[in-house]
Design brief:
By secondary structure, this protein is mostly beta strands.
Length: 346
């Protein structure tokens, strides 16, 4: 534990110097306007996964003639009914940076055998990163965090970092596999890793990969510890399921873990954090979706602040950008579509 504290203290001081400063200390929006994402033709399902500060979106749409399959695509801001297809069949775009560089995976048919690979894409140029892999996050420098599968048909992810044409596998905390969920502009990555097995059971631990080193954040047991988001101020959101099975959710900041308070009595799950420190989340113990925002340590249910939702069944949110916009998806006439929520401040 002392090694973890020493590491965290060093990192906290570094991040205070490197972290982005914002001219806007965002207040809580009084309302949100919903903008649908999809295609011109009604009835074509689509999914959204990530977006940038300009409102460009990475996602996928159902592939014509391919039952249950989807094709990677992106939407440019203001053209949310005009997806730009990326690659071939069977794929998804997971993230896009502010330069418009997209990462994800796509699949090609080589001699009657399908082969998937991680990619970057910009302005029509597709670059392969690795086979049996997918890109999960991309930062302003074009660094990509993703996973590669080493076991063929058996899902066994290992986290990789692509930088300047070089592939680095970051390793695990002693276990068999790991996964990545977010990366900041400094190339710091967070996710989960299995640790060394104890009495036959591998513990799932929240980690931070920083400066070429994998670090255990001290949230670890057989039920699961997962870090799901990180910003440029090195503030990390994570979850922990202790032995009693009741999940707890935290913000790691300046070497302190602070438990996120429930909102209106609902157990609340963090999903994404932006560079202002605002945390997006949702409740998971209600019949209807509730979208949540933590600002300066206080949680708010923002669901009823969303305007013009007639015809929608909102189901999930995925990300919040530095403008306070929120990316999510839902159903319109029983067809899955994405949406952007744009905040209105006083």
């Amino acid at each position: 534990m002392s090694k973890t504290i020493s590491f965290c203290l060093t990192l906290a001081l570094l991040c205070l110097n490197l972290g982005a400063n914002s001219d806007r200390d965002a207040e809580i929006p009084v309302s949100y306007t919903i903008t649908p994402i999809g295609v011109e033709s009604a009835g074509t399902p689509c999914s959204v996964y990530g977006f940038n500060n300009h409102g460009d979106i990475a996602g996928s749409i159902d592939s014509p003639g391919l039952a249950g399959g989807s094709c990677a695509c992106m939407w440019r801001a203001g053209h949310y009914n005009e997806p730009v297809l990326i690659g071939s069949i069977l794929g998804a775009a997971h993230a896009i940076n502010d330069r418009g560089v997209v990462t994800g995976y796509t699949t090609v048919n080589r001699d009657t055998k399908y082969e998937s690979f991680a990619f970057t894409w910009q302005n029509g140029k597709l670059t392969s990163l690795a086979s049996n892999a997918t890109g999960r996050a991309i930062n302003a420098s074009g660094d990509v965090a993703g996973i590669i599968n080493r076991r063929g048909d058996t899902y066994a992810p290992h986290v990789v970092f692509w930088h300047d044409g070089k592939t680095t596998e970051i390793g695990t905390l002693g276990g068999s596999q790991n996964d990545v969920f977010a990366m900041n502009s400094h190339g710091d990555m967070v996710g989960w890793s299995y640790a060394k097995a104890v009495e036959g059971e591998e513990n799932m631990c929240a980690y931070l990969w920083h400066d070429g080193k994998l670090n255990d954040l001290g949230v670890c047991n057989e039920q699961g510890g997962v870090a799901v988001g990180i910003n440029d101020r090195c503030e990390i959101i994570l979850s922990h399921v202790p032995a009693n099975g009741t999940p707890h959710f935290y913000l790691w900041k300046d070497n302190h873990l602070t438990e996120l308070p429930p909102v209106n009595g609902m157990k609340s799950e963090p999903i994404s954090i932006n560079n202002q420190g605002d945390i997006l989340g949702s409740s998971f113990n209600t019949h209807d979706a509730h979208f949540l925002l933590w600002h300066k340590g206080k949680g708010y249910d923002i669901t009823k602040r969303i305007r013009n939702v007639t015809g929608w069944k909102l189901t999930a949110v995925f990300a919040i950008n530095d403008r306070g916009q929120i990316l999510g998806d839902g159903l319109v006439n029983n067809t899955q579509r994405g949406f952007i929520l744009t905040p209105k401040y006083k």
